[in-house]
Design brief:
Blueprint (H helix, E strand, L loop, with lengths): L14 E14 L2 E7 L4 E7 L5 H9 L5 E10 L7 E12 L13 H6 L1 H4 L3 H23 L3 E2 L5 E2 L11 E4 L2 E5 L4 H11 L1 E9 L12 E10 L3 H22 L1 H6 L5 H4 L7 E3 H10 L13 H8 L6 E4 L12 E2 L2 E5 L1 E6 L4 E8 L4 H10 L8 H5 L8 E7 H9 L20
Parallel strand pairs: 3-5, 6-10, 12-13
Antiparallel strand pairs: 1-2, 1-4, 2-3, 4-5, 7-9, 8-9, 10-11, 11-18, 13-16, 14-15, 16-17, 17-18
Length: 430
C-alpha cells in the first residue's frame, strides 16, 4: 500500500510503501538510519542488517543525498521522533541516484544558497517555512469565506499607479504604456461596489531599489475591501483576521514551528483586540525614547516601528497619519482634516508593518480635489472617479503583505526565505 509521510499515523503496525528522497543518512555497522522526505514531511527509516536481505542493506549504506527511492517497511510509533513515528525498513528500490548534490549538511553562504534556491527549498527549514506560508494562505481563504467575502482577481497589468507613485515597472501594452500592478486596491473598490465585501490575493510589484531584509521586488498581497464599513469597522476585521491566521498556524503547523525553533509562547498571545495608538502618540513616544530625528509629518522607518512594537506583546495599530504622507484616496478625519482615517499594523519582535489600511474617500467633490492636488487628471483614473459618482457609500479596506507575515509568524530574520523564488534588487535567478 502506498502512502505519504503525512499519513503514516493512519498505518501504525502496517507495511506501506513511500516514494521519497534521501535527505540524509548515517550508519553504524549493522544498522543504517535513513532520513527520508516526500514533500509532506520527514521520517526516519531504520534498516537493520539482520532483518533485510544483503542487497537491501548494501544499497542502504551506499545511498547518496537526494537520491529518489521507493521505501517499503512497517510503521511504528516513536516518541523520540518529531513526527511521532518511524519506519522499520524492509525493502529499498532506487529510482534515480543523485551524484554530487551541491547543498551538503555543511554551512553554505547566502549567495550560494540563493543561486541554488531550486534545491535549497528541499531543506527541512525551507520546507517548514513553505508549509507555514501555505497554512497562512489556507487560513486566509477560510476566514474571508466565513465572513461572507467574495474573492475577486484584479488585473496585474494596469494603465496607472494605484498610489500615484513612480516606483513602477513599465512595459508596452501594444501601442500603450502599461505597468505591473503595485496594488489591486482601486479595482477592489469597484468590486466592493458590486459585491459588498471582497478580497484579492495576488502578486504585486514595487520598483524600489531597496536591499533591506524587509523588502522584495515581487511579493503577494491579500487586499480586502468592504462597502458600508468605516475605519473602526475595518480595524476590527483586521485584528480578527490576523488572530485567526496566527491561531491556525499554531494549531496546524506544530512540527514546522518546532523545526524553525519558533518561540510559540509569543504567538499564543496573538488574539484580538490589538492595542491602538495615534500617530501623534507614537511621535511623542519616540521622542521620549530618544528618537529626536523623527518629526511630525515624517513617515516611520524600521527603527521607529521596532521601538514602538517593543512596548507591546501583540501587533499594534498606529492610526491617523498625516494626510500629506498618505495616498490620495484616504479619507481625512472629519475632526482633524490634517490626518487620515488610516492605520498601519506593526508586528511584534521587530518585523515591522504587515498591514496598511484606511477608510476611502467617498465624496465626489473631495476626490476631484485630491485628483487635482496629485495631478491625476489623465484618462486612466476616470473610471475610479466614477465610483464616487454612481451610488457612493462609506467603504474601507486594507492590504496585508504575505511575506512579512510569514517572516513574523515563522520567526525568520530575512524575508527572502518566505517566498519560493525571491525577486531581489540584483536577483532574477533562478
Amino acid at each position: 500500500m502506498k502512502t505519504t509521510i503525512a499519513n503514516v499515523h493512519k498505518h501504525v503496525n502496517e507495511t506501506v510503501t513511500i516514494g521519497a528522497w534521501l535527505h540524509n543518512k548515517r550508519s553504524s555497522g549493522k544498522i543504517a538510519f535513513l532520513q527520508l522526505r516526500d514533500g509532506t514531511g520527514f521520517i526516519q527509516g531504520v534498516v537493520v542488517k539482520a532483518q533485510v536481505d544483503e542487497e537491501t542493506f548494501d544499497l542502504s549504506k551506499k545511498l547518496t543525498q537526494e537520491s529518489s527511492l521507493y521505501v517499503t517497511g512497517n510503521i511504528v510509533e516513536d516518541t523520540r521522533s518529531p513526527l511521532g513515528y518511524e519506519m522499520q525498513v524492509e525493502k529499498v528500490e532506487l529510482i534515480q541516484e543523485a551524484v554530487d548534490y551541491p547543498i551538503t549538511p555543511k554551512e553554505h553562504g547566502t549567495e550560494f544558497l540563493m543561486d541554488h534556491r531550486h534545491l535549497w527549498l528541499r531543506s527541512s527549514k525551507q520546507h517548514a517555512i513553505m508549509k507555514v506560508r501555505n497554512e497562512i494562505i489556507r487560513a486566509t481563504y477560510e476566514f474571508f469565506n466565513q465572513e461572507g467575502f467574495v474573492k475577486v482577481d484584479p488585473p496585474i497589468l494596469t494603465g496607472a499607479s494605484a498610489e500615484g507613485t513612480t516606483e513602477l515597472f513599465h512595459t508596452k501594452y501594444f501601442d500603450e504604456d502599461a505597468y505591473l500592478s503595485q496594488s489591486g486596491q482601486l479595482y477592489m473598490e469597484a468590486a466592493a461596489m458590486a459585491l459588498g465585501r471582497v478580497f484579492s490575493f495576488g502578486p504585486t510589484f514595487r520598483a524600489e531599489k531597496s536591499k533591506t531584509r524587509r523588502h522584495l521586488i515581487e511579493f503577494w498581497m491579500i487586499e480586502p475591501e468592504m462597502a458600508f464599513m468605516d475605519h473602526d469597522d475595518s480595524l476590527e476585521v483586521q485584528e480578527q483576521y490576523v488572530s485567526h491566521v496566527v491561531q491556525s498556524v499554531l494549531k496546524n503547523c506544530k512540527i514546522e514551528l518546532n523545526t524553525l525553533e519558533r518561540d510559540t509562547s509569543k504567538l499564543e498571545n496573538i488574539k484580538a483586540p490589538f492595542p491602538r495608538i495615534t500617530y501623534d502618540e507614537a511621535i511623542e513616544f519616540l521622542h521620549e525614547k530618544g528618537f529626536d530625528d523623527i518629526q511630525w509629518g515624517d513617515d516611520f522607518g524600521a527603527p521607529h516601528e521596532t521601538a514602538i512594537a517593543e512596548s507591546y506583546d501583540k501587533p499594534v495599530f498606529i492610526t491617523h497619519f498625516p494626510l500629506e504622507i498618505k495616498a490620495f484616496y484616504m479619507k481625512p478625519d472629519p475632526n482633524n482634516p490634517n490626518v487620515a482615517l488610516c492605520a498601519d499594523l506593526i508586528a511584534p519582535e521587530g518585523y515591522g508593518e504587515i498591514i496598511g489600511g484606511s477608510e476611502r474617500i467617498d465624496d465626489l467633490d473631495l476626490m476631484k480635489q485630491r485628483y487635482e492636488e496629485h495631478d491625476l487628471t489623465g484618462p486612466a483614473y476616470q473610471w475610479y472617479l466614477q465610483l464616487r459618482e454612481y451610488g457612493s457609500v462609506p467603504h474601507s479596506g486594507f492590504g496585508l503583505g504575505l511575506e512579512r507575515t510569514v517572516a513574523w509568524i515563522s520567526g525568520i530574520e530575512h524575508i527572502r526565505e518566505t517566498i519560493p523564488f525571491p525577486r531581489l534588487l540584483n536577483r532574477l535567478y533562478p
